[in-house]
């Protein structure tokens, strides 16, 4: 009788015991182990944008810009542009008919032309201006940081710049105080930008 009561007591104690609950804060995560490698997100490559008296490399993810200022040597700048634009480099040639003297023009199929002048001190061809033309392949892909470029309307242009427009031998020419120039297709708000340039130019009719 005593033995029966002893065994019965042990059975009751075992029934009252429960497995410890797992800490919700350290639940196992399926598929993740200590040896798993995490890949860093891909970084966006900078894109080339046009600017007054310069070109710029724009990081579209952060909005940060790097200036490519006038005075850069031709080989260095051409290499940078070739790695940031999706357009074929057509090469360079010297134009001797410009009022500013002989200028070297480096051009791409998207309508971008970079203008270089030979330094009297070093003999290097240095960046002095850029030109962007309409009617060229993918010309509308190049623009300012704010999005103004070939095909933008006069109204869109005036949202970002205070411009002066006058009739010249080139057409309806606009200019800004800081040195951005271009040609509009007409005089109204819906007229579109046909050509843009900044710095040294060789616009000869």
Structure characterization notes:
The radius of gyration is 33 Å and the shape is globular. It is 16% helix and 33% strand. It has one domain. The protein has an eight-stranded antiparallel β-sheet, covered by helices on one side. It is of the alpha+beta class.
Helix segment tally: 3
What are the segments in which pLDDT stays under 50 over at least 5 consecutive residues? Answer: 1-8, 19-34
Q: Helical percent range?
A: 10-25%
What is the radius of gyration? 33 Å
User: What's the number of domains?
Assistant: 1
Task: Offer a quick outline of the entry.
With 205 residues, the chain is of the alpha+beta class. 16% of the residues lie in helices and 33% in strands. It has one domain.
Secondary structure blueprint with pairings:
Blueprint: H1 2-16, E1 47-51, E2 54-58, E3 65-69, H2 74-84, E4 89-95, E5 103-108, E6 112-118, E7 125-133, H3 154-160, E8 163-168, E9 171-176, E10 180-184, E11 193-199
Antiparallel strand pairs: 1-2, 2-3, 4-5, 5-6, 6-7, 7-11, 8-9, 9-10, 10-11
Features:
single chain; 205 residues; alpha+beta; eight-stranded antiparallel sheet; three-stranded antiparallel sheet; 3 helices; 11 strands; 33% strand; globular; disordered N terminus
